[in-house]
Design goal:
Blueprint lengths: L3 H18 L3 H16 L18 E7 L6 E7 L7 E2 L5 E7 L2 E6 L10 E7 L4 E4 L6 E6 L6 E7 L8 E5 L4 E5 L23
Antiparallel strand pairs: 1-2, 2-9, 3-10, 4-7, 4-9, 5-6, 5-8, 10-11
This protein binds fe (iii) ion.
């Protein structure tokens, strides 16, 4: 991590956006997407411990949670071949790719007992931002698009996403199961040690 200022700036700007327009999803997307895009356009700020893949499954590391839990910022790390189950979010989310690339498959909400077929598929590359929400489409699968190395994306959600009750789906039957994702880290990264930037004085 050489430039923690980038993350501090992002959090400050995003908090100001939520202060002003937190109830307006459209405005959060319109004004928030350039902030997420700017954050992931430089790969010089994420501490390596929060970009570490695991051979077991993808990882989700909480980087920041708003004091009132109006938004959270998470790094997702995908090892080669790793993917999520089919899942929803129940809140707005923006996903910016920092490293590598992701493949997303979108699904409509299941109708009972019917198999779920993906209605679209797209690739999200470095610096690009994808969006989800119950309004614009909330169910998808995300996978590492790269077979030979990890990918890392930065997600911003309209809640403390690790504590939200949401759903995973069996695409063969459309059956859903509730889940709460939690996080893989027990401690947060410290982006706020500015002592190196300041003269010690007398
Ligand atoms: Fe997702």
């Amino acid at each position: 991590m050489t430039n923690p200022q980038r993350f501090r700036d992002f959090v400050a700007r995003f908090a100001a956006l939520v202060d002003a327009h937190g109830a307006d999803e459209h405005r959060i997307f319109t004004d928030g997407e350039p902030l997420v895009a700017a954050l992931v356009s430089h790969d010089d700020w994420l501490p390596e411990a929060f970009a570490a893949p695991s051979p077991e499954s993808y990882r989700q590391y909480l980087l920041y949670c708003d004091p009132r839990e109006r938004f959270s910022v998470v790094s997702f790390v995908w090892g080669p071949g790793q993917r999520t189950p089919v899942h929803d979010h129940t809140v707005w989310g923006m996903i910016g790719v920092l490293r590598g690339a992701e493949l997303c498959e979108e699904y409509d909400a299941p109708s009972s007992g019917r198999p779920m077929a993906p209605r679209g598929r797209h690739r999200v590359g470095p610096g690009e931002v994808d969006k989800v929400s119950p309004t614009i489409g909330d169910i998808h699968v995300v996978a590492n698009a790269l077979a030979d190395r990890p990918s890392v994306s930065i997600h911003v959600y309209g809640a403390n996403i690790g504590a939200v009750r949401r759903h995973v789906f069996d695409p063969a039957t459309g059956a859903s199961r509730r889940f709460v994702s939690g996080y893989h880290n027990a401690v947060l990264p410290n982006f706020w040690d500015r002592s190196g930037e300041l003269p010690a004085g007398e």
